[in-house]
Amino acid sequence: MEGYGLEKVHEANLKIMDEIDRICRKYKIKYLMDAGTLLGAVRHKGFIPWDDDIDIAFTRDNYRAFMKVAPRELPETMKFLDYRSFHKGKGFYDFTSRILYLPSKKHEDGPEMDFYDGNLNHLWVDLFILDEFPDNKIKGALTLFFQRALYGMAMGHRYRLDLSKYGIKEKLMVGFLAAIGRLIPLSLIFRIQNRLSVKYNGKKNKYYYYSNYQPDFIQVLVERTWSGNIKELEFEGRSYMAPADPDGVLKAIYGDYMKLPPKEQRVPSHSSMEIQIYE
Prior knowledge:
The chain contains 9 helices and 11 strands. By secondary structure, the protein is α+β, with helices and mostly antiparallel strands.
């Protein structure tokens, strides 16, 4: 961690993670370290030195169980954020719920932060959901197509539609989907996305997919034997839950995950200012 100035950020993230772990063990809920957090556990036995957040995943039933108990179990410094609650349910950021660390700040105040009720201005832990992916190739392709389309339509309800990172074809597609989405109540988009996500659960399909990932990662598939079972992995001197086959999951997400990125990419990516921690 030395040289990146993220020691206090990592300490705050660990406070959230410790609470999630405590709650899950109390209620016998299974979670999984995921994405950069799982990579950090395997490659660094803790945080990736330049990473500024934590990612965890649940299978759908475990996520539902966690949602029921987390709001009342979390301390006053933390908050469960339902992705459907922004701007009185009329604002979209993405389909991912989070645990916020309230005594923190990672963006300057402004109209966009106000639109999202100030909730995007805190350190958080992402809560990803693993749903079953259909074995049938056509159904699988349609599932990913409609998930991406629903995300594009939901983007019509963002504070601002930023098309700067897209190529010409993608700009046209995203702009078109967002325009359609503005004509549809966001609550309806949320309901359709949820029904699509759970459509194949209980079928004992071979793979899970992250139904609330962003579109550029939603095609990541992990075998249910990798993530349906758990093991314990060391993380910053603690023992947290992880997929039974972390190697399989990390290869599915990153490919050659042991290779470090170029030095210029080793920077925090979830904030627009130096993250402030108040407690």
